[in-house]
Amino acid sequence: MPCYNCGETVGRALDSLLAQRNAEFEVVAVDDGSDDDTAGILAEYARRDSRVRFLQIEHGGVIRAANAAIQAARGEYVARMDADDVCLPDRLAAQARLLDDCPDLGLVGCRVRFGGDRRRSRGYALYVDWTNTLLTPEAIRLNRFVEFPVPNPSIMFRRTALETYGGYVRGDFPEDYELLLRWQEAGVPMAKADEELLIWNDPPDRLSRTHARYDVDAFYRVKTDYLARWLSRNNPHHPAVHILGSGRTTRKRADLLLDHGIEFAAYYDVDPKKIGNTVNGVPVLDRNDVPAPGEGFCLPYVASRGARAEIAEFLEGRGFVLGRDYIPAA
């Protein structure tokens, strides 16, 4: 658990961990050079309970602190958590049991409860709802290019997987999403406990809201690298793809693939004002003109709320199979 200026929340997080049932564990809490009372709180918890190990480092950011904690951890399984979240009492036991029972799994998560204001943060809450539908290895694998399918504070992984495939790396991208994409590319199966085991809070200063490496463009940059390699191995019509959507935002995000040698056969839209246009030499066609299954690979890039499900229904109604004929990318 990396900790930085979290004096108001870290006690609650630690209490939730120390209340875990039916699990043998240690809590490795790293103070990342805080200038509030975080270090004092961690030291007091470590003094009172031998299960808490407290480390201090100079401020270097959440990646450095998380990696320091992981390196110091001694367990066969390593779980992540943020200092402003709360574990429900059976989290560690349930996730460890899933890893025990399924030796092929390298990483597991769980369903999470959104701990913010659903009206004020509707987008974040809907994202949590979406992640909670992705429980199986297949669902996580086929939806990994939409968004981060396993919330980082909820994960538990095998140390052997970490040693084989590497940990968090620093860059201008969300390091947790990059780790998941890298492990998925290597073929690491992932699943979730079908239980709500973590309260994922949404404070206004959460890094995913405030740091540039967690903005939307950063997510698309890192996913594009991995998506392009996935297409080269799985698209039988490589390098040609058919892009569903032709709006400015869709084109901006899809265009990142061009630098990887991907070619756009056409854009497809439902807006009659766009149909018939040409964008950089690529025609905009009516969505009903998408090629038949087996004749072209489709990439839905429309990110407006509800559009992904509607497009999937449209494609599958025509016989398209997720992962074989199309993969969602927004």
TrEMBL record:
Segments forming domain Glycosyltransferase 2-like: 1-165
Coiled coil: none
Molecular function via GO: transferase activity
Swiss-Prot/TrEMBL keywords: Glycosyltransferase, Transferase
Source domain of life: Bacteria
Similarity field: Belongs to the glycosyltransferase 2 family.
The protein, known as: Glycosyl transferase family 2
